[in-house]
Amino acid sequence: MGIVLGKITVEMPKHEVVHTGAGYEVRKSPPCVAAEVTYDPAEMKGDRDGGFTVLANYIGALGRPQNTKPEKIDMTAPVITSGEPESIAMTAPVITSGEPESIAMTAPVITKAGEPEPVAMTAPVITADEGGKAGGKMIMQFLLPSKYSKAEEAPRPTDERVVLREVGERKYGVVRFSGLTGDKVVKEKAEWLKAALEKDGFAVKGPFVLARYNPPFTLPPLRTNEIMIPV
Predict the structure, then answer these.
(1) Transmembrane residues, as ranges (predicted)?
(2) Which of 2, 56, 87, 180 is the most buried (most CB within 10 A)?
(3) Is residue 8 assigned to a domain?
(4) Residue 119 has pLDDT above 70, yes or no
């Protein structure tokens, strides 16, 4: 019932608020490790979130985890998708499949005999157009727990479509709103935030992304959404 009423009970990423404006804030997030998949929505009947299942399988959200531990990683909020093509800052290395390795767990840990051990995961899930072309390939990411400071420390994927990357420190201007996230509303919020950031002297460094914190069956007025613009 809590999630229907908009209560967010899952883990959310840590960040530092470095500026509070009129109706928005600027956040700085520390480096992290991301699991990433690149896909073409056109091959998935136009589904811009078509990479979700691939990554969900990697963390074990839909069954046995598809990684070499295997470790099950809990889903968290928000899910982030691109409203426009987004440049995502990355550092090396990039890791795909590999040999099994022993990886310590993060809390909370719930162990059942004969089942994979769950590992807490931090959000967001990030999706971005690749190459900046409408209808082009998309990139979706799940950000892994902060305990994984290097890509090679995380559970290695067995699906070759999933790669692990190190994401550098990033800073976003953010505006929060409730309700549905139709194209018109999202565009209006993004245009407002961009204008507010530039008015206050921030240099916009890329297009916006949309963050959604609730499942689709949550009552619309009780949903938490955010537009995020890199600065």
Answers:
(1) none
(2) 56
(3) no
(4) no
